[in-house]
Amino acid sequence: TSLSTSSCVGILYLMEHEEEYVFTLPSAYARSILTIPWVELGGKVNINCARTGYSATVTFHTKPFYGGKVHRVTAEVKHNPTNTIVCKAQGEWNGMLEFTYSNGDTKVIDTNKLPVTRKKIRPIAKQGPLESR
User: Given this model, what pLDDT does residue 19 score?
Assistant: First the structure.
């Protein structure tokens, strides 16, 4: 896999599957800059793979001024040729995520317990000018 970004749009190549995913990026908001600063993601991210015909919309919800949770996210995966929603997700992007599939199945993933895989990158000399390490 390799990742490149250009003017708020990213392209992710899954070389082993010959798939290209084009995606937008969320906004980042600086919070509590006078006390203990932290960054919050907000806005919609659109992901599209022309080869598979699938797309997704991921919404990063910002915390309300009073109450509410941080890092909330909702998502919807669609099969474009049939205009069918195949999966919905909700939860926290850095915590528990619940996936509900169109057949009624559900799955909960704790992102804190996912295995960490080291990045595989090409040598810098073989990278293009827009590639990212």
Answer: 95
Yes or no: say if 73 and 89 are a contact pair by the CB < 8 Å rule.
yes
How would residue 5 be classed by pLDDT, with cut points 50, 70 and 90?
very low
pTM across the whole model: 0.77
* Domains, the chain, with CATH or none: 9-126 (2.40.160.120)
Q: Structure tokens of 27?
A: 């906004």
pLDDT of residue 130: 82
When comparing pLDDT for 98 and 10, which is higher? Answer: 98
**β partners of residue 103:** none
Give the whole-angstrom CA distance, residue 98 versus residue 109.
Answer: 6
Sign of CA dihedral 27, 28, 32, 34: negative
Burial letters 57-81, b for 16+ CB under 10 A, else e: ebebbbeeeeeeeeebbebebbeee
Instruction: Report the C-alpha gap between 39 and 13 in whole angstroms.
Output: 28
